[in-house]
């Protein structure tokens, strides 16, 4: 399929809960592949799709040091809007990606304009579901790709649950797999921390920004022609 034909009639009719592919990113353990990214449609309004990656695509610190920081100045935001953006999308795909005005970034944290972003706490609460039974919302509990689980040169190494609580596992292709935790962009009053989705798919507020074991599930908004 030609890249310019990615946004065609099936996508124009995509409803919340649908899975689509858009862009590519390494997902195999050796990182040599360019596998299409699977996105969950969170919203379809006014000719615009709000997309959220179905899986954790990589592992990053929110910020390199355990200091007070904002989403605007975070390392993960810079990575999403530069390295990831250019790696995942070619020019024919970038023309569809909307610049999104991001709010709910945390107390005293400025609004931002982003091509790629993390979900906020309100977005995660409204648009994702703890359980997989809701077909119209993305599942909150998820796993990382093999590439996401690969230990990186900067020391990032995705945590994968391996204990006894059943709610921290999902079934993929008949196999029970341990979930991993993933960052949200919103920060609590203590700005050396950020919210994340953790055990039992709950939203937690105590993630130290320099933790190297939480994953990234990018979100984008694309304009339909």
Structure summary:
InterPro entries: DUF6273. The chain is an alpha+beta fold.
Given the C-alpha coordinates, what overall shape results?
globular
Summarize model confidence as the mean pLDDT. 92
N-to-C order of helices and strands: HEEEEHHEEHEEHEEEEEEE
Helix content: 10-25%
Q: Count of helical segments?
A: 5
Radius of gyration: 17 Å
Q: What structural class is derived from the secondary structure elements?
A: alpha+beta
Q: What proportion of the residues form beta strands (DSSP E)?
A: 25-35%
Query: Structurally, how many domains make up the residues?
Result: 1
Quote the distance from N terminus to C terminus. Answer: 17 Å
Low-confidence stretches: 1-5
Strand order of the largest sheet: 1-2-3-15
What does the largest sheet look like?
A: 4 strands, antiparallel
Domain DUF6273: 46-223
Protein name: DUF6273 domain-containing protein
Pfam family, one: DUF6273
InterPro entries: DUF6273 (IPR046240)
């Amino acid at each position: 399929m030609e890249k310019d034909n990615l946004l065609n009639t099936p996508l124009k009719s995509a409803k919340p809960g649908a899975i689509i592919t858009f862009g590519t990113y390494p997902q195999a353990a050796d990182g040599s592949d360019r596998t299409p990214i699977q996105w969950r449609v969170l919203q379809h309004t006014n000719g615009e799709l709000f997309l959220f990656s179905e899986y954790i695509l990589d592992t990053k610190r929110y910020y390199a040091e355990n200091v007070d920081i904002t989403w605007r100045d975070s390392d993960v935001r810079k990575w999403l809007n530069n390295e990831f953006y250019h790696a995942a999308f070619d020019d024919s795909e970038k023309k569809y990606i909307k610049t999104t005005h991001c709010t709910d970034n945390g107390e005293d944290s400025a609004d931002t304009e982003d091509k790629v972003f993390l979900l906020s706490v309100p977005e995660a609460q409204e648009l994702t579901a703890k359980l997989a039974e809701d077909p119209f919302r993305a599942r909150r509990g998820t796993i990382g790709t093999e590439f996401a689980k690969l230990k990186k040169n900067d020391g990032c190494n995705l945590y994968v649950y391996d204990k006894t609580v059943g709610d921290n596992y999902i079934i993929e292709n008949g196999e029970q797999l341990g979930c991993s935790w993933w960052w949200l962009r919103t920060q609590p009053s203590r700005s050396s921390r950020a919210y994340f989705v953790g055990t039992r798919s709950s939203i937690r507020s105590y993630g130290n920004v320099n933790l190297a074991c939480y994953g990234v599930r990018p979100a984008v908004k694309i304009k339909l022609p």
